[in-house]
Design brief:
- It is a single chain.
- The chain has one domain.
- It is mainly α and 182 residues long.
- The chain has helices spanning 5-51, 54-78, 85-108, 113-134, 138-156, 161-181.
- The radius of gyration is 19 Å and the shape is elongated.
- It contains 6 helices and no strands.
- Helix 4 packs antiparallel against helix 5 (138-156) and helix 5 runs antiparallel to helix 6 (161-181).
Amino acid sequence: MSLSAQQAAAALAQIDATTHRAQVQRGYRGGGGILMMWSVLWALGYLGMAWLPPAMVSVAWFALAILGTGLSLHLARGGSRVSGPGLWRLAAGAGFCMVFVTAIVVLAEPRDPAFVVALPGLFVGLVYAAAGVFAAPRYLVIAGYVLAVTVVGFLGFRAALPYWMAASCLGLLLGGYWLRRG
């Protein structure tokens, strides 16, 4: 029995679709662990915003960002998911994100400390939205959560915003678990 050109093309398309779904699921499993790790680091960063002297907050966030980036690269490499150029792209992207957010704070010179507290959540929501649109749709749900809790906290709980944002990291921890489960 021979296959027609259309049947062969349909079979190849099905194989491609299955391969893509498997890659996305593998990415969710790896990304879920990374999100869980970041949720703990972000909670620590937000609590640092509430407890540390203002001069130490930037140092604490920078240290947490460096630690998180290093751990993310380690976790991504652990399952042979990322190597070579892919690893450099992740490192360069993380570095660019750190510089970008820092530049916003330096250039905007915000007078409202709540803006500085909300900025990481807004930026992370944007990054997850891009990941959801271009690669893995589940990240759109996480992006929506991050953006919603940031805006609700900013508008409704400004006086306690660092605590609100730290508590909202529990939702990110659960989101990471949801991603890991595939």
